[in-house]
């Protein structure tokens, strides 16, 4: 009787979680469609006025940019700030005019927002990010592609978004959620010189990495969503992730061009379209014989504690790169019990998971993921990631770190150290919806961009546009 009651509760929780996630996905999609329709309507109804002023149009990179003739330094001399989205995220050009970073990219004139696979593995996304910046056809590597059962080559970037990228022209990266780990893997690839035709790459191509609710050590949520605690690779037979798997397979197999242009999970290199595999290929994917879910070459195995340990065992914190982290939490201790810290200030998508993660207990009949593991260390969370996972790389080896309460405490900044702050927020407070975060949104992103522009440099301070030497 007790087992039946537990099973009924689990199925009820699965139903509620599935409905909440589906409704939120539909809300985001419909918001993007509505925004595009309003924009198209406004273009039809209102013609822009032409004003004559002292601003001149200048042709730059096949586009027009407005340039004001004031004494300034060339904007192109500044290192770009590249914003990397997390799981289920999207870059510029997807979902119409919707911004994953809620418009934060408008706070600086030199920002790039690449569109990477929203569910592809950290390895594949790191490869995609390199070619997005340098240009050329994405090469996932021959050995990796054969092992995972997908094409070696992917999307073609006729022109890189920052082709001059090298040690003399490094980049600032800001990664949200899984995006932070993508940058770490990319930096290690640069150090290991794995990109064919680019033998001069080095870890110094990365000037700074800011992790915003970054998945640096995995999360216990993956087990709640359906990953097996035994290995961190396989899925339970009945779980939220199995429903996600079925939906993604059907989406990729149907391969509706306008829909995939609007939003893409990033699995085109697995050739799952009905045009290529037919009905028999669909059956193989659904049965788990082929595809990313069969080979494990997708994002969720990388987000388990075991998967993050496998990644971290090969990743370094480099001495010439600056590292920063904002670790988020929406929990507090009440009479020694960790519980959600708020009701109204937690997004509905995360409330159940915040409670579940705060009460997480590793199965006693399964070996802990690492030596010294304690459940209580992983109870504080933001609904998607555990706070302990977001501060700095900890497992299997802890990297140098320093907790910061006030930014003035860490001046001057030192490379090779993870500076981190604990911030009261759920996992998506600083993305998608700017109004939810209010003034906190501006405080976070202003501090990130100001640090990149004024406090992080290797040789000499940067001269900002419209900032003369005599100011």
TrEMBL record:
Record Gene3D superfamilies: alpha/beta hydrolase
SUPFAM superfamilies, A to Z: alpha/beta-Hydrolases
Lipase-like C-terminal domain segment(s): 110-192
Keywords recorded for this protein, A-Z: Hydrolase, Lipid metabolism, Secreted, Signal
Location, primary (coarse class): secreted
GO biological process: one example: lipid metabolic process
Record GO terms (molecular function): hydrolase activity
GO cellular component term of the entry, any: extracellular region
Location relative to the cell: Secreted
Name of protein: Lipase-like C-terminal domain-containing protein
């Amino acid at each position: 009787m007790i087992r039946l009651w537990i099973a009924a509760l689990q199925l009820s929780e699965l139903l509620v979680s599935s409905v909440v996630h589906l409704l939120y996905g539909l809300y985001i999609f419909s918001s993007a469609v509505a925004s595009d329709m309003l924009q198209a309507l406004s273009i039809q109804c209102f013609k822009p006025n032409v004003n004559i002023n002292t601003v001149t149009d200048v042709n730059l990179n096949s586009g027009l940019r407005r340039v004001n003739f004031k004494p300034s330094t060339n904007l192109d001399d500044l290192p770009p700030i590249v914003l990397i989205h997390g799981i289920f995220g999207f870059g510029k050009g997807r979902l119409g005019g919707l911004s994953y970073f809620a418009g934060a990219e408008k706070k600086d004139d030199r920002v790039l927002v690449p569109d990477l696979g929203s569910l592809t593995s950290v390895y594949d996304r790191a490869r995609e990010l390199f070619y997005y910046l340098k240009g050329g056809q994405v090469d996932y590597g021959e050995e990796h592609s054969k092992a995972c059962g997908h094409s070696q080559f992917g999307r073609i970037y006729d022109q890189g978004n920052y082709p001059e990228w090298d040690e003399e022209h490094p980049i600032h990266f800001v990664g949200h959620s899984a995006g932070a780990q993508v940058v770490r893997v990319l930096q290690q690839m640069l150090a290991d010189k794995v990109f064919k035709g680019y033998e001069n790459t080095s870890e110094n191509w990365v000037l700074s990495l800011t992790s915003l609710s970054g998945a640096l050590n995995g999360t216990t949520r993956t087990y709640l969503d359906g990953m097996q605690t035994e290995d961190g690779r396989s899925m339970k037979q009945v779980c939220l992730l199995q429903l996600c798997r079925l939906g993604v397979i059907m989406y990729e197999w149907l391969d509706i061009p306008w829909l995939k242009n609007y939003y893409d999970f990033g699995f085109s290199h697995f050739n799952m379209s009905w045009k290529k595999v037919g009905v028999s290929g669909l059956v193989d994917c659904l049965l788990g014989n082929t595809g990313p879910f069969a080979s494990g070459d997708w994002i969720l195995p990388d987000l388990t504690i075991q998967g993050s340990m496998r990644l971290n065992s090969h990743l370094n914190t480099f001495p010439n790169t600056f590292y920063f982290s904002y670790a988020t939490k929406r929990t507090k201790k009440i009479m020694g019990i960790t519980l959600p810290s708020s009701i109204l200030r937690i997004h509905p998508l995360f409330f159940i998971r915040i409670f579940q993660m705060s009460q997480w207990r590793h199965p006693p009949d399964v070996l802990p993921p690492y030596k010294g593991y304690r459940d209580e260390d992983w109870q504080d969370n933001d609904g998607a990631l555990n706070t302990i996972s977001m501060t700095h790389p900890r497992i299997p080896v802890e990297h140098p770190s320093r907790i910061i309460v006030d930014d003035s405490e860490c001046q001057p900044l030192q490379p090779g150290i993870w500076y981190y702050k604990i911030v009261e927020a759920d996992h998506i407070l600083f993305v998608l919806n700017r109004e939810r975060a209010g003034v906190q949104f501006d405080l976070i992103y202003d501090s990130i961009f100001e640090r990149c522009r004024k406090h992080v440099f290797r040789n000499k301070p940067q001269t900002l546009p419209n900032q003369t030497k005599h100011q």
